[in-house]
């Protein structure tokens, strides 16, 4: 399916709610859970989940939720997770990714890490000035969500489930993750009691935002 | 990859002597990063100099101001997750503070039979092969995804 068709599948508000619910979970989601999460009936959820799978926006696996196996264990439940593929569509046609990759390649070769981090920090500060101060962890969460990071609260820590620079960060990790941290530092700094820090884990963004243990700056 | 492990070497030309205060940020991280490596999933082996806990005292034909770092992993993904998805990334982010801009490829990887421990000389040779010929199954980088069976065995001497 072409990107524009896949994206158009999300125009339906129920589907979009289902998609967003599944994408936000830290585990694969059963039909029942997705239905509850989106606040709709199970059969309706099943219909829309399959549309999302057909569009390549979700993927399925199956596992026996009972934990049993063999005869009598029941049919394995269908489980949904967000597909890894990226979809984008621009009118008029634009190709910022190729440009970004070329620029990053050159910046990497010239080791412009420090310069890029300084520019990213300025960008973060400017965005903060425009949005107003984050205030607290919940405010920071909203700010990060608006920038596509998909923050998830774990106690005093916001883990960022999505990297908005994913492809670039895989191709130029040291350069791009350093840029990302500086951007988030600029965005968060000045918010009393919060800090951004690098804490890379497989499958997640490289940065976490957390309550600082004390108020040192 | 059953039967094979991935060996890697990376090198860096330091900007100041290791005991210089400007290198402190780097040297202060070494012990904890090495501990993370030692406990990382898929870690097999890393180069350590005599009597030390790291390879900072080892010098090669690459030069007296070149640090080497060498290790063996069960798979490319295990190595990737350590290099770019652990505390090690925080060090990479600051590499420009401590190391000169490399003028040639500075890391190389190659497949070895599981159980083999590569020598530093062997590793430097692989890096020089990569620098001379570009990526191939016998000397490649993270961008290339060669498999163990891609390498034509070298004629036995």
From TrEMBL, chain A:
Transmembrane segments: none
Pfam families reported for this sequence: HTH_20
SUPFAM superfamilies from the UniProt entry: Winged helix' DNA-binding domain
InterPro entries: ArsR-like_HTH, WH-like_DNA-bd_sf, WH_DNA-bd_sf
Domain of life: Bacteria
Protein name listed in UniProt: Transcriptional regulator
UniProtKB/TrEMBL annotation, chain B:
Gene source species: Kibdelosporangium persicum
InterPro entries: Dimeric_a/b-barrel, DUF3291
Chain spans, region Disordered: 135-157
SUPFAM superfamilies xrefs: Dimeric alpha+beta barrel
Domain DUF3291: 6-144
Record's protein name: DUF3291 domain-containing protein
Family matches, as Pfam families: DUF3291
């Amino acid at each position: 399916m072409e990107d524009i068709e896949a994206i158009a599948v999300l125009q339906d508000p129920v589907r979009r709610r289902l998609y967003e619910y599944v994408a936000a979970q830290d585990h694969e989601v059963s039909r029942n859970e997705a239905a509850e999460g989106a606040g709709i009936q199970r059969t309706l959820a099943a219909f829309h989940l399959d549309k999302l799978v057909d569009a390549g926006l979700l993927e399925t696996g199956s596992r026996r939720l009972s934990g049993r196996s063999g005869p009598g264990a029941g049919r394995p439940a269908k489980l949904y997770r967000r597909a890894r593929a990226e979809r984008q569509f621009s009118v008029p046609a634009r190709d910022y990714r190729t440009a970004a990759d070329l620029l990053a390649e050159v910046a990497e070769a010239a080791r412009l890490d420090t310069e890029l981090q300084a520019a990213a920090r300025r960008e973060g500060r400017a965005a903060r000035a425009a949005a107003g101060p984050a205030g607290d962890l919940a405010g920071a969460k909203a700010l990060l969500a608006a920038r596509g990071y998909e923050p998830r609260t774990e106690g005093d820590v916001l883990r960022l489930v999505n990297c908005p620079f994913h492809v670039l960060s895989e191709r130029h990790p040291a350069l791009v993750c350093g840029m990302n941290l500086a951007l988030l530092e600029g965005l968060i700094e000045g918010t009393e009691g919060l800090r951004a820090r690098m804490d890379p884990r497989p499958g997640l963004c490289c940065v976490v935002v957390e309550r600082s243990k004390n108020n040192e700056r | 990859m059953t039967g094979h492990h991935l060996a890697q070497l990376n090198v860096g030309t330091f900007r100041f002597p290791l005991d210089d205060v400007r290198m402190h940020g780097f040297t202060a991280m070494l012990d904890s990063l090495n501990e993370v490596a030692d406990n990382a999933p898929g870690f097999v082996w890393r180069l350590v100099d005599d009597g030390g806990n790291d390879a900072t005292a080892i010098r090669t034909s690459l030069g007296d101001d070149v640090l080497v770092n060498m290790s063996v992993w069960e798979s490319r993904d295990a190595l990737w997750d350590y290099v770019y998805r652990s505390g090690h990334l925080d060090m990479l982010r600051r590499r420009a503070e401590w190391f000169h801009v490399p003028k040639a490829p500075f890391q190389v990887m190659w497949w070895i039979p599981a159980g083999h421990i590569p020598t530093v000389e062997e590793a430097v040779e692989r890096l020089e092969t990569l620098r001379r010929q570009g990526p191939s199954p016998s000397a490649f980088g993270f961008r290339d995804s060669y498999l163990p069976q891609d390498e034509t065995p070298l004629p036995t001497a």
